[in-house]
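Minutes, project huddle
Topic: does the predicted pose make sense with calcium ion bound?
PN asked that the exact inputs be recorded in the minutes so nobody has to dig through chat later. Recorded below.
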Amino acid sequence: MQRRLFLFLLLSLVLTGFRVTALEDKPGVSPDIVIVLADDQTWNDSGCYGNRQVKTPNIDRLAAQGMRFTRAFTATAMCAPTRQQLYTGLFPVRNGAYPNHSKVKPGTRSMVHFLRDRGYRVGLSGKKHFGPPASFPFEVVPRAQVGKFIGRKKGEPYCLVVTSNSPHLPWTAGDASAYDPAEVRIPPKFIDTPQTRAALSRYYAEITDFDRELGECMAAVKQHGREEDTIFIYTSEQGAQFPGGKWTCYDMGLHVAMVVRWPRKVRAGNVTDAMVQYVDVVPTLLEAIGGQQVKGLDGKSFLGVLQGKTEKHHEMVFGVHTTRGIINGSPCYPIRSVRTATHKYIWNPKYTEPFRNVLIGGGDKGGYWKSWVELAKTDEKARRIVEGYQRRPEVEVYDLRSDPFEQKNLAGTPALQELEKSLRSSLAAWMLQQGDKGIETELEVKAHRSVSGQGKKAGKGKGKKKKAAEGKKTAAPLRAS
Ligand SMILES: [Ca+2]
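Predicted holo structure (tokens), as shared on screen:
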């Protein structure tokens, strides 16, 4: 498999004719920065990440020209918290934007301030989904003006974030006829119904359409002749709106694709297993441009990984999810997680309550969830999947080496007792550092909400106001015991 992937990347490299440069320093040159963000793309739904059905020639070409991360993560599988942690270098509870449709605490500074202070002009083209505006004072760049923004003022470095609306629901962009529903392969933990196949076909078409947008950005950078000195990042944002993806702390939600191309400093066709998180991106960019770090950020620069100096970064990465405030969400269903290279520990403090979201609550625009529920009435596998999505135990532990799709909960297994204790302790320490009080923090959601700038797709339909509703039986606060 690894060999096939290597040959695939090598072939892509040859086909693209990309020049493999000697990595060198060019003193006095500030790199430009382009970040292209998909919207709800499951991390491995592209050719170079192993899905050979979905057509993503530009993601694959970028990977052949740069470094591909196999273990990159967001700390929250929802749009607004993901974007705001990426832009601030702070985890969601600490920056305040932990619910969806949320805003950071007043006075929070972001990459816009940090880069502007270092002589950069900083633009954003596409979906915003952050607030308040004072924390993210991007220059707004209409999509048709991207080339103009890149080409403006030669010699003045820039950072441009291009945020797509694809492949977020509704899956309407792209050519779904390119993906025959009868031919699509059904991922593990999915239920094979005609509606699932049709949904995957439309979702793949949107990924291919996103890939087209990525290709246009790559072409715009090339056209202005600064490709060698441009840090070009593609990343997938978070898992798609399928059960076990978005709105969960499972890997299908938190795991992200990330490719960094920087011909001057990053060797082409490289793959790294180093564990990185979205909060690391801002410190990495600050170090890469030679600027001073910002004190107090949660992230840590992974420039050394990009330069091939180390293959390690974090020992563990964390996840936080709140269901309060999402459309048709449970009144209170917090989730917290910690993940090492080999294991995942998930804590569901309100495990006695059912988990609910827009899919379950009747807003399933993809139309497949109802077909799963229907089949679950007669099919045991379907029943297990449908029930398991809505009812979870307090603690889940998975060995990701043998169980990458998190299907066999090992919590309470004697052989893993010490590891479980250690992961629980690490998670508790992280929550303490973040000021995260679990259920109490969940109940403070309202003060953090904001619904501005969601973009044309996500702006449809607002969640009904929910009152705080504590369950009768809840788990004790997580303690480092
Ligand atoms: Ca999203």
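Observations noted during the meeting:
- Confidence is low (pLDDT under 50) at residues 13-22, 452-456, 458-477.
- Residues 30-314 form a domain with the Alkaline Phosphatase, subunit A fold (CATH 3.40.720.10).
No decisions taken; revisit at the next huddle.
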